[in-house]
Each structure stands twice: as C-alpha cells, then as structure tokens.
Amino acid sequence: MLKYNAVRIPGYFLTGLLLILLAVTGCVSKPQQETARSNLAFLYNPSSSPLHPEFIVFHEARTQSRLYIKVYPVELLFNQANSEETYQARLEINYVLTEIIDGKESELVADSTTTEFTLRMDEVKKIFVANLPIRTMEGKKYMLKVTTTDILRKKGTSNFIHVDRSTVNTGQNYMVTGANGYPSFDRVFQSGEYFHVQYNRKGVDTVYVKYYQNITPLPRPPVTNLSSTRPDFIPDSIFAYPYSDTARVLLPNKGMYHIQVDPYKPGGLTLFNFGDNYPRVASVSDMIGPMAYLASSVEFNELANETNMKLAVDNFWLESAGNVQIARELIRVYYNRVFFANYFFTSYKEGWKTDRGMMFIVYGPPNILTKKGDTEIWVYYRKKSREPLQFTFSRHASPYTQNDFMMERNFVTSMWVQAVRDWRSGKIFYAESI
What we know:
Layout (H helix, E strand, L loop, with lengths): L6 E3 L44 E8 L2 E8 L16 E14 L2 E17 L7 E8 L5 E10 L4 E10 L9 E5 L16 E5 L6 E7 L24 E6 L12 E6 L8 E5 L10 H5 L8 H8 L4 H13 L2 H22 L9 H9 L4 E5 L2 E6 L8 E7 L9 E4 L7 H9 L10
Antiparallel strand pairs: 1-12, 2-3, 3-6, 4-5, 4-7, 7-8, 9-10, 11-12, 11-13, 13-14, 15-16, 16-17, 17-18
Helix pairs in contact: 3-4, 4-5
C-alpha cells in the first residue's frame, strides 16, 4: 500500500457547525516543578499550558538517542531587551531520563541536561526545531521528562515521553522526515502526503509493510467489568519493498501501516491514515461515530444508516437540547473534546475510539492526573460527595504503539449512566455537580 515499486505477498458527522476546531490559547502558568508530578492534568488541558511543544525520539546509535523538539514561536515572548536590540526570545529545555523497570520508574537519573536557545524573530518562521542527544542503552526502557520554558515570560510546561530501546525493532529505531527534509512529529498522514523513512541500522535492503484496513472496535463503557475488545491484528495485506531512505513514501488508503525490517519479530514503525480531516471533526460522517457514547445501539444504527445523515444528526442534538442555542453549545463542547481525544490518545486506532478518549469526551479532562510508570490515574472532583470519581488506565504492551492504555472498570462508581443522561437532557456533564 505504500507507493513505490513493491512485491505483494499474498496473505488482509446543526448547520454551519461542521468544522469544529478549538483554537489553543495560552494562559498564565508557572514552569512545572518536580512536585507537580502529583498532578499532571495540564497535559490533557491545552488551555492550561502556555507552550505546546511536540517531541520525537530517534535511536541513532547503540548508546545514544536523539530528542527532537518542535516549538511554536508565536507562543514565545520576543523583546528587544538584549545587547543586539533585536527582537529575540529565549527558550530553555531541560530533560531528566529515568529507567522503567517492571513497569515502574527508577528513582535514579540515567541522564539529564539543560540547554538554552536564542530565537531571533527575523530568522525563525512558523516553527522552531531543536535536538538534543540522550544517553540510552539498548535493551532498556525509560521515561523522559522534558520541561520547556519561555525564559522571558518565566512560564513553561512539562511533558513525558516513553523511550523504548527494548529491541532494535521498536518504532523509535525509525526516523520519519517530511518532503521538506525536516523530522515529522506526526505519525498520521493524509492520502497525498509524501515522506521518507530511515532505519537506524545498516545492511537493510528490504522493508515489509503490514496493512490493516479497518480497526474499528469501540471501547466498552465503564458500566461493565469487561475490558474493551481488542482486534486480532491480522493484516489485510503484506507488502515487501526495496529499502531506501531517499524513497518517497505515502499512505494512499485509510488504515494502519506497520513497517518492519523483520516481519517475524514484534515491533516496527506504525503510521496511520485516518482520512484527510483527522484529527479535526469537519464533516457529518466525522460526527456520527462519537455519538455512539450517547446513543443507544438502536439509535446509533439508525443514525449510521440514515440517507440524510446531517438531518439525523441535527435532530439528535435538537431533541437532546430542546432548542437550537443549547444544541449549538452541546455540539461545540462535545466535538472539541473529540478533536482533543484524537490529538492526545491516538493509538492503533483513532483517539476517540480509545478508553481514555471515551472518558475524555463524556467526562471532560480530569481535575487530577497522576502518572506512575505505565499507569495513569484520572480524578474528577464531586461537589456532593467526599469521594471523587477515579479511573485508572494501564499501558498495554503493544508492538504498534506506546499510547495503548486500558481502563480498569468499576461499574458501581463510574456515574456513566448519570453522565449520558445529562448529555441527553441538554446538559454538559460535569462531575463537580454531582
């Protein structure tokens, strides 16, 4: 399915509101200190962070990886208070690397550094990309905390990246670059978007691509103790290509593409084509799917099979809201959450289809988020109860993604029925109100 010469191996969503994308706005925020590790809720609430950097890690040698950082200059303060009297911004990047052993973080620091960059307004464009070396060892897994600070504003944010050197087959052994030659910080591509793929080892003459056309299972809501179903991951097609790091590659069809140098060993680079709108909600068909969390199975099947999908969607929200104004607000909030679920939680399927995506869409971002190795704990305050809502998500070991988390279900305390009832009665669900 990747386009260039290949040998195939036989074997597999109210009118005027269709384009919904929340503009990310900065707000006052101090740089995250080490003690902030107990509440990382800002990670899933873009408006709570002044900076929104992006990161990738590439294992370039046996004892060294490289961290690539993308920063948006528009989020930085530029002023002329410098010896050159030109508009400049100052950016500080600090990272701390700790090893993960048996799913838990070690208290010992494996590597750390702090680096400062000066950005000149007449030289930077829409993005600024920097890179830093990291001392890593093959056969290990790490957690990398990166703190990015706008020195002039004295504001910043922290992010956490999983570094996987467990085998030479993991996705971070591959570098993806765009047609412009710059590192690609995304693993989701549109149908006509060309890029290049580089593997970090020499002597590779063939790469294998397993194509999965449609991985669709939705998560089970937290009204059952049964875990969400998982696909069987049987590829629809397998292709072999002559390897070249200069070859132009694209993903012509929607689906998941798993690239490997050894098709018989787990691990590889996983890339996705979820349609040309993704992660945005820009069409009626984009809006239908996430309605599954609010509609009954009968209602959802009727929605999905309606000839006039737009009218069906309008009617669903109008019936829930009772009037157009409230319906507009429900739609705005609900589908902004769908967008951010896609942005934060994409794994081997669209972010809105994941356990965390489902909870984010229906409940909103958590009040408290803690990370403990391979576990995330989400806490929602409750006004009328001393006991908050708490949900635990654990990372599932997957050769396709590092972002696959499964929720530990407890149907007794989830308040899911109340949440759905609020949405269906024209109210945005807030745990604080219950």
